Amino acid sequence: MLYFLATTSLTLVQVGAALTTAGLLALPVGPMVGGLVDRYGAKPVLQAANLAQALGFAGYLVVGQTWQIAICAWLNSAGRAVFFSCYGVTVTALAAPGRRERWFGLLGSVRNLGYALGGLLTAVAVSFGTHGVYAAIVVVNALSYLTAFVLMRAVPNIRPEVGQDAAGGWGRVLRDLRYLSVVAHQLCFAISLFVLNIAIPVYAVDVLGLPGWTAGAVFTLNTLMVGFAQGIIVGWLGGRIRSRVLVVGHACFATGYLLFLAADRLASHALAVGVVLLGAISYTFGEVVSGPITSTVAAESAPDGLRGRYLALNQLAVSVAGAVAPAALSGLLSTGAAEIWLTLVGVSVLGATLATTLGKVVPAAQRHIGGV
Questions:
Q1: Model confidence over 279-333: pLDDT tens digits?
Q2: CATH code at 41?
Q3: Which residues contact 353 (CB under 8 A, 6 or more apart)?
Q4: What residue numbers bound the domain in which 5 lies?
Q5: Where would you find the membrane-spanning parts of this chain (predicted)?
Q6: Final residue belonging to a domain, choices 123, 155, 187
């Protein structure tokens, strides 16, 4: 948003409309490539996504109209959706059973540290505010995807053998009621993930009137905990039943939401800051505990020959949450603290209920963490 406002003559509404249009048009892309992943393997599809995103960011250097922004942003949004559709397939193929939670946890930590580093460097660069600096940010983004393309060349493309478990195509995926419960759980989990970026900073600064650094402190806590503690915590959880750990994760989310609500009832800003930070810690524990387990259950619940389609459907839940969350959370936030946080507590309760259901009907959710 800042880049386009600084480098084009377009208004905030025009830029927002272009980015929203791109995000909505990218929703079907993940499911569309699921069949390609099953047929050709995840690597070539992922490599195409890397090139698409490099092209999209390079295009930012020359855009000036709303439709041009929408096209380039669509390349980036679609590439991101394809990445996450291929990501679980790649990890599952390369990681041995019993080690997948650790690998999903490690890669989640690395990705979160990447977000933090990128955000820090961008914040420093934007402080200069010149056109050249904005262009440099875009160029670095484009080069990062080209670098990812080169690095991925060393990763083998493990294609599933065509067999009985590949029969049925999308019809089989959509008729798999047990996996649809996995997707429903993913939707609840994803909604909670978007709370960090959309609701918490606005609530802390604009609603509670806390100092601006409070939002930064929340992000810092989240980044450090996910970046450095996720792998350790997954190791500590070894031997525990996956579905029960997911329930604990949703309980941590709900506790965080109730703490955010409690901060609205405090007269002292200093106490409110402390309660918000405690809420952020509890919220982040929910993310740390649930993230690797959610990814592992989704990946291992899919048959080898159709894993691309299955995980594409699961990723669609994340994309839908990302498309709906900004409007839904901002609307709830505008009505009051109780409305948003109690609604999100309800989402967590639903997520915990679905996790309990997974523990009864989905074999992958019944297994022990680290078990084969």
A1: 999 999 999 999 999 999 999 998 888 888 999 899 889 888 887 888 888 888 8
A2: 1.20.1250.20
A3: none
A4: 1-155
A5: 77-96, 103-126, 132-151, 182-204, 216-238, 245-263, 269-289, 310-334, 340-359
A6: 155
In terms of domains, do 143 and 186 share one? no
109 and 204 inside one domain: no
Instruction: Tell me the per-residue pLDDT of 210-219, one tens digit each, with 9 for 90 and over.
Output: 888 888 888 8
Each residue of 239-282: pLDDT tens digit? Answer: 999 999 999 999 999 999 999 999 999 878 899 999 999 999 99
Lowest mean pLDDT, pick from 231-240, 258-267, 344-353: 231-240
| CB proximity list for 155: less than 8 A, separation 6 or greater | 43, 90, 94
In a domain, residue 166? The reply is: no
Residues 278 and 141 in one domain: no
Rg for the chain (alpha carbons), in Å?
21
Three-class SS of the chain: CHHHHHHCCCCHHHHHHHHHHHHHHHCCHHHHHHHHHHHHCHHHHHHHHHHHHHHHHHHCCCCCCHHHHHHHHHHHHHHHHHHHHHHHHHHHHHCCCCCHHHHHHHHHHHHHHHHHHHHHHHHHHHCCCCHHHHHHHHHHHHHHHHHHHHHHCCCCCCCCCCCHHHCCHHHHHHHCHHHHHHHHHHHHHHHHHHHHHHCHHHHHHHHCCCCCHHHHHHHHHHHHHHHHHHHHHHHHCCCCEHHHHHHHHHHHHHHHHHHHHHHCCCCCHHHHHHHHHHHHHHHHHHHHHHHHHHHHHHHHCCCHHHHHHHHHHHHHHHHHHHHHHHHHHHHHHHHCHHHHHHHHHHHHHHHHHHHHHHHHHCHHHHCECCCC
When divided into structural domains, the chain yields a total of: 2
- Rounded-to-integer distance, Cα 299 and Cα 228, Å: 24
